[in-house]
Amino acid sequence: MTNQSKLRLMCVHAHPDDESSKGAGMMARYVREGIEVLVVTCTGGERGDVLNPKMDRPEVQENLPRIRNEEMARAREILGVEQHWLGFIDSGLPDGWLPDSGTELPEDAFYLVPTEEAAAPLVEVMRSFKPHVVTTYDEEGGYPHPDHVKTHEISVAAFAAAGDPERYPGLGEPWQPLKLYYSHSFGKARIEALHYAMVEAGLDSPYKEWMDAGDWTRDKSERVTTRVECAEYFDIRDEALKAHATQVDPDGFWFAVPREIQQKAWPTEDYELVETRIDSRLPEDDLFAGLR
């Protein structure tokens, strides 16, 4: 599947569009440095809503699975990545859902598949693609969505199992990825930097309500170990995000901060190194630190 001499990165995401809103600048940078990047998309986003009012039409909702597949194809072409669908069914996001809330999910939901079973196809892809580095979400899924939480669970399980010849026999030759990272897209430090940059520029900040609320209980900024500079690739990131037209309003929240302000105020995408099989000094500025 890949040239063994190249470095390889696997980014595991829950739905089509997650790859473009969480780490797309980093992926665009690495692709253009000659690193092979594979996005693994766990579900098809079948139960997502049409979040872009310009696309909120009956025929779009009726054909959402096909349309989201087509959007993903455009986004991966823009980013220059490979992409693999795991084939699980979107769990949806019922009101009030939390891991221990007891809120019912559809019987075929990705979240309800036992982790040992759900990790199997990801182990197979890891053994085939042979990534050196894997990124995924933290233990809360980045935010509490059942598919994001499950994506975290199977990524951690597959990272642990892929190199063990006694686990998942028949799913390919064992391969042990060397580094596992959690992405941290919306930390307090980043939001504050963007907010104050907007205020200084005399512009309305999309983060004003967040700042006024002052609720940083889920903030994990202090856990960031690795900041990957990728500001020059934010244009590619934005184009990939716009490819997911059912999910992203080009005049909406994602683009409320001008790109030039983002590039100056916060030019990195940020990660937490949670497991490594090699020596790497912290903090890092490269997911492949210690591997080049």
Query: At CATH's second level, what is the architecture?
Result: 3-Layer(aba) Sandwich
Share of residues in strands:
5-15%
Helix residue percentage: 25-40%
**For the report, how would you describe the main beta sheet?**
7 strands, mixed
| Total beta strand runs | 7
- Which sequence of SSEs, written as H and E, runs from N to C? EHHEHHEHHEHEHHEHHE
Number of domains as seen in the coordinates: 1
Evaluate the radius of gyration: 19 Å
For the biggest β-sheet, the strand order reads 3-2-1-4-5-7-6
What structural category do the secondary elements indicate? alpha/beta
- Low-confidence segments, given as residue ranges, are none
- Averaged pLDDT: 95
Distance between the termini: 21 Å
- How many distinct helices? 11
The third-level CATH topology is Rossmann fold
The global form is globular
Provide the fold topology:
Blueprint: E1 8-13, H1 18-21, H2 24-32, E2 36-43, H3 58-62, H4 64-79, E3 82-88, H5 115-118, H6 120-129, E4 133-136, H7 146-161, E5 179-183, H8 188-200, H9 208-213, E6 226-229, H10 234-243, H11 259-265, E7 268-276
Parallel strand pairs: 1-2, 1-4, 2-3, 4-5
Antiparallel strand pairs: 5-7, 6-7
Helix pairs in contact: 4-10, 6-7
Core attributes:
292 residues, globular, Rossmann fold, 11 helices
